[in-house]
Amino acid sequence: MKKTFLYASIMAVAMMGCGSGSGTESKGLTTDSVKFEQKTKASEVKIIVDYPTAGSPVLVNAIAEYVNESLGGTYYGDLLKSDSLMAYYGNTIDGKLKEEYDDVGDESRPPYSFSMDIRKMYETGLAVTFTASSYSYMGGAHGMGFDHGMTFRKSDGRRFCIEMMCDVNSDKFRGMIKDGLRAYFNENGEEVTTDDDLAQMLITESGLDFLPLPQYDPYMTKDGVKFVYQQYEIAPYAAGQPSFTIPYDKIWPYLTKEGRNMIER
Predict the structure, then answer these.
(1) 235: buried, middle or exposed (CB in 10 Å: 19+, 13-18, 0-12)?
(2) Helix (H/G/I), strand (E/B), else coil: 127
(3) Is 94 within 8 Å of 25 (Cβ atoms)?
(4) Measured between alpha carbons, how far is 239 from 233 in angstroms, rounded to an integer?
(5) The pLDDT value given to residue 50
(6) If you average pLDDT over residues 208-231, what whole number do you get?
(7) For FRET with 207, which of 13, 31, 59, 119 sits at 20 to 30 Å CA-CA?
């Protein structure tokens, strides 16, 4: 039961001492790379965040909230104090890993581990995107990884979510999802050209009759809007995290006015 609880806690992170490194500043938003890293025989924890330090207060707060939520959402202190937030999550996760490791009692095993990187990966004059990538190992044949991202409107910190898209259940839009997944599998050494080929790669109950959208919102990149499925979400572990990017010119008809207004063209 303890291990189940810890898995739930750490996986919620993907839904979701300390030091600082080089800072970056671009178009009114300043970030600083802050880190928590701790290693023992039983546990390894490493968290790196491009933490917002200056800029529009509403934008800085919105991004800090995203960082907090990505790490679990249980820190209730001042979000402007990145060292306190990082120490809280680093020590909390480290304690849980050690508890689970000690509970098994076999010290010949490799340490349990958790790592997360939250990075600023794309920015324009209108929006900025952060991505969060995590990996945890708690024994067994392999660990679990999660990747997701979030785009923020600079003017007020609003998040770009699926609600800024329309007609996502239409046949044409779902056709783009299928095309993106086919491209992903082909780029990873599979030969996937037809719907039947694609269906063979997936583990969804409905098959291609109604292919679900990713559980996490898409986000903006330099090349378009990116969609990421997590491990086991629609495909087996060996398939990794199926992902693809729909170029802006193709996804434009499916964006609301608010969504379009976040894109520089």
Answers:
(1) buried
(2) strand
(3) no
(4) 10
(5) 98
(6) 93
(7) 13
